[in-house]
Amino acid sequence: MRKHCFGPIIPLPLHVHEWWLARSWVRYETYHYSGIYRLPFNLVLKVSGDLTANETAALHFVASLYDIHTPILIDHCCTARKTYLLTTWIEGDCVAEVWGQLTATDKARLATQLREQLSHLHEQTITDVGQRPISLGGPIIDPRVPWLADSPRIFTTSRDLFQQLWVGLSCPWNAETLQPRLQSLIERGDVPIVFCHGDILRKNLILPGGLQKWRSGATVVCLIDWEYAGWMPLPWDALKATWMTYGPQDEWF
Predict the structure, then answer these.
(1) Domains of the chain by residue range
(2) For residue 210, pLDDT beyond 50
(3) CB 128: neighbour CB atoms within 10 A?
């Protein structure tokens, strides 16, 4: 999660207390959301303790890009302790819930759609090193580097960040295995900074209209939950998407 806002977003004339008239509905729990509520009129309210409103800023920014399929930002507001985010609800199947039903052809098509959308996202936001600092100069707090949670750091180069991703490379059990493979990647100084989703996991992918409609070619996979989005080194989305896999034998990898 990038601890900054991209800029103020002008709220629409909605009142928070009216949102609570609908019954609550939770698709799943996330890292720092205290509630996700399904509302009438195909809307969803997300209540968060993240006072930076990072997901709000991310959705606002991504809406200016093309060929990125996301929920539409409707409104947001902040109190002293909570952030309230109102977006459209994407009716459909969560990929995590239907993964076992996907054929090899389905999975190949899903991979293609994700690759295309992430390519569009990165190509439209690519920035030379030095022109845009990592996370716009804000400290990084992310479950991929949980040891930074108590003392968030500001990283000025990709190398500094990558060194935190692979700690312990100099340990005896890594010195002759992982370190030779990773050190050259860590040392690279030409890694561009791009805007990243930061949480490409099956639980954050929706097939609009359901599996059968998506399978027919009528819809394209939608990326939800942008709370970890931000300006990061180009490999970040790939690293975050696979950091909990067991290696090449894992089908998601």
Answers:
(1) 16-90, 93-242
(2) yes
(3) 9
